[in-house]
Amino acid sequence: MDTPKPNSAQVGMVGLGVMGRNLSLNIADHGFRIAGYDRDTAATDKITSEHAATAFPIGGGFIPAPDVKSFVASIQRPRRIVLLVTAGRVTDAAIDGLTPLLEPGDCIIDGGNSEWEDTERREAAAVAKGLLYVGSGVSGGEEGARFGPSLMPGGKREAWDLIKPIWLAIAARVDERTGKPLTGARPGHPVSGGVPCAAYIGPGGSGHYVKMVHNGIEYSDMQLICEAYHFMRDVLAMSTGDMAATFANWNTGELDSFLIEITADILRQKDPVTGRPFVDVVLDAAGQKGTGKWTINSALDLGQPAATMAEAVFARNMSALKEERQAAAKVLSGPHLAGNAHVAGPQGGGGHNPNWVDCVRDALYCSKICSYAQGFALMAAQDRARSWGLSLGEVASIFRGGCIIRARFLQKITEAFERRTDLPNLLLDPYFAGTTSDRQQNWRAVVARAAVQGVPVPAFGSALAYFDSYRSPRLPANLLQAQRDYFGSHTYERTDQPRGKFFHVDWPDPKRPQSAVN
Ligand code: 6PG
Q1: Span 116-132, average pLDDT
Q2: For the ranges 338-347, 381-390, 402-411, which has the lowest average pLDDT?
Q3: Closest Cα to residue 380, out of 415, 410, 432, 424?
Q4: Is the minimum distance from the CB of 402 to ligand 1 under 6 angstroms?
Q5: Does the Cβ of 383 fall within 6 Å of ligand 1?
Q6: Extended strands (E) in 24-111
Q7: What is the Å distance from ligand 1's center to 221 Cα?
Q8: CA distance 350 to 302
Q9: Which of 75, 469, 494, 504 supports an S-S bond with 79, CB 3.0-4.6 Å?
Q10: From atom 4 of ligand 1, which residue's Cα is the shortest distance away?
Q11: Is the beta carbon of 403 within 6 A of some atom in ligand 1?
């Protein structure tokens, strides 16, 4: 590998694993010359040969660098250097290796799944050295990185101004009016037109925060789909082929989304070794890298109810207890599966034979609405806490294409925030209020039947509990406050007094006059 010429590149990439390689080729597709460096020379060789096989009609290209020093020297100033390396210590080490070689005004862009608080710490350290720093969510997996991801950059505006031409060029694009992703990109031929799925999110770690919540929503989208599959498989006794056809059919309507589409593909797939449905040979023990857990940690810190996303994380934890579950199955009994349980159908009439597949579709859609309501409410709460100035409508609009949760549904959320920018909860928007009102009987029927037949649907159930709690003017927390006052003198507010006035009952003698505490 030759040493690249100084100032020959307009942008640099550190980390040429699959994401870094694909994003580099995407950047080259859009007419930029990008220098690349990876400690692993095999990764650099791989992109170099892929690059040689691609024509970049509008003048972009990839310039490999054998070491960090010549890599940095090859980039025009002010330098824009993207990092796509493993989050955590590897990111810190990459920054430490680069920083002494950079000059004031140069900009580091972390495109990994970094924790937003790490991003704030790294940005402060970079700024103290006169550098600019962007923490950018990059969603869309390998394919998205290559042909158009959804991008969520956070940092100082001047840092955004520096990377904006590249970020807007390489992002996925959607039709402005319908929100439909524009497809058909191929190597050397990116799509054009429409609007890009990239926008300045806000200062500090806000870009990585929004990406984290995207992943929390991704976790619940995936879990909800798994529960629909579980219900169809074990309660409705549907074949894998019928389930594939059902998901494919749902993908033509309001549930149209990347995750539903790939679910249909997966269910159609046969295992090349055994010829059985591929999904039947995959072990039911889920992995995770942590972004879902971080979302829930943040929800707990902010006191935000995000139970559906939390259940999705816990469902992965439960799945990972494979051996323990196998042992428990020998001890604990439950109802027989796939029987015709006597649960009132969605219309409530005994003997009515509802179309259970439609019920599952509605349970999935209503639960999805609740999970997004939780995710957007969480982003709003963090925005209030940090004064980031997030535009949730813009966040919804950049989720419409490129990212893993891209879906027709995101257009509805975009429109909801256009109707009301300060919407406190998605469920209050007329479209979502109407949809949950129309579909809830089917949703309830699925949750009830799953409970009767012993099939766990934690995310469907928790979404329904969230919906029922959120629409309840009176929850049982009056009793809870009384209990707290009883055993710990924690005080309570009264229904017949203004909010904010606290009282305490002298419990050994509750007939004595109550004392106001403030
Ligand atoms: C994306 C994905 C991506 C990655 C997740 C997977 O938006 O492109 O979210 O970031 O696939 O990190 O996370 P788990 O390994 O935790 O499922």
Answers
A1: 98
A2: 338-347
A3: 424
A4: no
A5: no
A6: 33-37, 61-64, 80-83, 107-110
A7: 12
A8: 44
A9: 75
A10: 141
A11: yes
> Would you name the residues annotated as active-site residues?
211, 218
Ligand 1 pocket: which of 18, 113, 296 to mutate (most atoms within 8 A of CB): 113
152 CA to centre of ligand 1 in angstroms: 14
> 213: Cβ below 6 Å to ligand 1?
no
Backbone angle region of 352, left / alpha / beta, with phi > 0 → left and psi within -120 to 50 → alpha: beta
Q: How many CB atoms lie within 10 A of CB 116?
A: 23
Cβ(111) to ligand 1 under 6 A?
Answer: no
Task: Find, among 120, 194, 215, 134, the residue nearest to 167 by Cα.
Answer: 134
Query: Cis omega (within 30 of 0) on the bond before 57?
Result: no
**What domains appear along the chain, each with residue ranges and CATH number?**
11-204 (3.40.50.720), 209-467 (1.10.1040.10), 477-517 (1.20.5.320)
What pLDDT is recorded for position 518?
A: 67
Single-letter amino acid code for the residue at 478: N
Instruction: Tell me how many helices (H) and strands (E) the chain has.
Output: 19, 11
3-class SS of residue 151? strand
Backbone angles phi, psi at 277, to 5 degrees: -55, 130
Indicate the top mutation candidate among 22, 400, 404, 410 to test ligand 1's pocket, ranked by most ligand atoms within 8 A of CB. Answer: 404
User: What number does the ligand 1 atom closest to the CA of 290 have?
Assistant: 16
| DSSP class per residue in 422-450 | T-S-GGGSHHHHHHHHHHHHHHHHHHHHH
> What distance in Å separates the CA atoms of residue 349 and residue 29, rounded to the nearest whole number?
60
pLDDT, one tens digit per residue, over 50-76 is 888 888 878 899 999 999 999 999 999
- Would the CB of 69 count as within 6 Å of ligand 1? no
> Given ligand 1 and candidates 147, 215, 223, 403, which is best to mutate, with the most ligand atoms within 8 Å of its CB?
215
354: pLDDT strictly greater than 90: no
Q: Which residue in the block uniquely carries the two structure tokens 């006052």?
A: 485
Quick check: 120 and 50 in contact, CB under 8 A?
Answer: no
Distance 93 CA to ligand 1 centre (A): 22
Q: In this predicted model, what pLDDT tens digit does every residue of 219-238 receive, in sequence order? A: 999 999 999 999 999 999 99
Encode burial over 375-406: b for 16+ CB neighbours within 10 A, e otherwise: bbbbbbbbbeebebebbbbbbbbbbbbbbbbb
Instruction: Give the position, in ligand 1's atom list, of the atom nearest the Cα of 219.
Output: 17
Residues in the chain, total: 518
Residues 124 and 151: beta-carbon distance below 8 Å: no
